[in-house]
Amino acid sequence: MNSDFKGVVIDAGHGGTDSGAVGNGLLEKDLNLKISLYLHERLDELGIPNELVRSNDETIEPADRVKRILGFYGDGSDVIVLSNHNNAGGGQGSEIIYALRNSDDLGRMIAYELNSIGRNVRKVYQRRYPTDYSKDYYFIHRNTGNTQPLIIEYGFVDNSIDANLLKNDWQEYAEAVVRALCNYLGVPYIPVDNEIEGVYVVQKGDSLWSIAKRFGVSVNDLKRLNNLDSNMLAIGQVLVIDESNEDSIDSDEYYIVQKGDTLYSISKKYNVPVNKLKDINKLYNNSLTIGQKLLIKDNGDEIDESTSSYDIYDVQKGDTLYSIASMYDISVNNLKDINNLNSDILIVGMKLLVPKKEEKIYVVQKGDTLYGIARKNNVTVTDLINKNDLETSILSVGQVLLIP
User: Does residue 70 register a pLDDT over 50?
Assistant: First the structure.
């Protein structure tokens, strides 16, 4: 976990006499509380320090809400505030609002995780006070010191489609926030359903006896399958639970992520570069999930051969789908189709498939200069020199130059 991080404050918006938005049988205050209690329980399980602003249906005035928020871990940038809300106004989809003083990194990570489960995210944005553009519009942003507050609007309760989704899928949306937070903090993510293809991720309170009883195997079999010399277990440890998966934790093609693993340690163990591991597993950052199955051998059967006509592009800060599409001379829709994207949200470090660029060459003619060739091909002289490893600006007729 990031050593500069103190904790997460979970704020269930509204409450008591303030019901918030109302529609389609939903009260915003109740839904906000359910989501917040769920986040609290999951962060406890994952060992992430956190506190709840409210744990029941009570009225909290804005000044008191701020006082509670700042009372847990202070007002520094090492504190994350998640203020859970639901919208009204007839729209559809989620929104994430971050403070003027903060970057959009965590907001975009949450948006990415919501998109990955099919949830539409309308936008990740900031909102300014109408009479003073130097201030945030919402008091949760404006009055909470240097913390990192995010308002997460999960959906619109007065939209019948959204309301139905919120009733059935609110837990999935909250879990998406948990995954994003783990990625942001560098904390190993353990899924709620930790039975992953014949293996089990050890939870708080587990023992070999309880796990053996749960899966109908003997303690001795569990110890034999997992080469255990004692009955000691560690939270996050991955155990094989049946004979058919005995080789799945450490095989020639796959590796099951254990507690403490990093991409660097796995790459060193299998002599595979980190970037190669990220490429073949389509990872957009260095975060790993305990129990995650990583492909460690690029064997053709596992990798889609249709990607051979594409290069990998690492998303940079400031990139947009439009800027990347323009760079590779394709449409935004084409870029989204290639990468199965259902939104315009990008995250720094995310990997995108882009068309391969063929090398363009130029044969030097009589009278040519580097400046003239550069201007003709809309590049700089420095680009030409670097691309062709030129040590001089002198050209010869017939010389072949690569055009960046």
Answer: yes
Q: Which amino acid is at 44?
A: D
Residue 308: phi and psi, rounded to 5, are: -65, -20
CATH topology of domain 305-355: Membrane-bound Lytic Murein Transglycosylase D; Chain A (3.10.350)
Task: Report in angstroms the alpha-carbon separations of 71 from 26, 95, 101, 147.
Answer: 31, 27, 20, 12
User: What are the domain boundaries of the chain?
Assistant: 7-185, 195-295, 305-355, 360-403
List, in order, residues 6 or more apart from 220 with CB less than 8 Å away: none
> Exposure of 168 by Cβ count < 10 A (0-12 exposed, 13-18 middle, 19+ buried)?
exposed
Tell me yes or no: is domain 360-403 CATH 3.30.70.1400.
Answer: no
What superfamily in CATH does domain 195-295 come from?
LysM domain (3.10.350.10)
Region of residue 333 (left: phi > 0; alpha: psi -120 to 50; beta: else): alpha
Q: What angle do CA 150, 154, 160 make, to 5 degrees?
A: 155
Do 148 and 106 touch, CB atoms closer than 8 A? yes
pLDDT tens per residue, range 199-242: 777 877 889 999 888 888 889 988 888 888 888 888 777 788 86
List of E strands, 50-109:
50-52, 79-87, 94-98
How much is the average pLDDT of 66-83?
98
* pLDDT tops 60 at residue 162: yes
Q: What whole-number distance in Å separates Cα of residue 283 and Cα of residue 61?
A: 43
Residue 111 has a pLDDT of: 92
Alpha carbons 288 and 322: distance in angstroms, whole number: 29
Given this chain, do its domains 195-295 and 305-355 carry the same CATH topology? yes
Which residues touch 204 (CB under 8 Å, ≥6 apart)? 45, 235
- Cα angle 125, 127, 131 (rounded to 5 degrees) comes to 160
- Residue 291 in tokens: 């129990």
7-185: which CATH number, 3.20.20.70, 3.30.365.10, 3.40.630.40, 3.40.50.2300?
3.40.630.40
